[in-house]
Design goal:
CoAse, hydrolase, metal-binding, 209 residues, magnesium, alpha+beta, 8-oxo-7,8-dihydrodeoxyguanosine triphosphate pyrophosphatase activity, single chain
Length: 209
């Protein structure tokens, strides 16, 4: 391969996330509903029979199927979990997506459920649903804690091939973990991250008006 062939290969290429083919991709929806003419955010409590994270507070969402658009996945999962028609989920907009250190990409969206009275939670996945006024999160900041990640090379790692060997100065990273308390529930993890991001977007917009 000569330099011209390399140039033609790279010409017009759209960059993506390196190694994204190996990442597991999820989509979630932050649902907005109106309660007594006030904007609320709707949350699910995962069924206690779920294999992963039973009893935790979350937004509707799940794994993106092969060839499926992230927004379509978020709407589909919300429809399945809340027992509503996809047509009841309107004004869906993308939030910033996240690439985690655990080999996943999460695509969050915010959207409006036009008629919350039609919600019939899927009991196999959802233990209960509840709503919290958007104003509550604007007035109450989350508690924030750090999680430290440590590097642990596997047995047989070729330390002899790197300068510093077993004393190599690995870069470690920290991650903020947020906790909200509302309606007697604890909101944390991915749900709290998406929520915090959404509230920041709303606050930034309010400051411009």
């Amino acid at each position: 391969m000569n330099i011209n062939q390399i140039t033609r290969t790279l010409l017009g290429r759209t960059p993506s996330i390196m190694g994204h083919e190996q990442f597991i991709k999820f989509a979630v929806l932050l649902p907005l509903v109106e309660v007594n003419n006030e904007v609320h955010i709707l949350f699910e409590v995962r069924s206690l029979t779920m294999r992963r994270q039973p009893g935790e507070v979350c937004f509707p969402g799940g794994r993106i199927e092969k060839g499926e658009d992230p927004q379509k996945a978020a709407v589909r999962e919300t429809s399945e979990e809340l027992g509503i028609q996809e047509s009841e989920i309107i004004d869906v907009f993308p939030l910033d997506y996240m690439v985690s250190a655990f080999g996943t990409i999460i695509y969050p969206f915010a959207g409006r459920i036009s008629d919350r009275s039609k919600i019939i939670p899927n009991e196999a996945e959802v233990g209960e649903v509840f709503t919290v006024p958007l104003s509550f999160f604007k007035k109450n900041q989350p508690d924030s804690y750090k999680i430290n990640f440590q590097v642990e090379p596997e047995d047989g790692f070729p330390f002899d091939l790197i300068i510093g060997g077993e004393n190599y100065n690995w870069q470690t990273r920290k991650m903020d973990e947020y906790f909200y308390r509302a309606n007697g529930k604890v909101i944390w993890g991915l749900t709290a991250k998406v929520l915090t991001h959404f509230i920041e977007l709303m606050e930034n917009q309010s400051s411009k008006e």
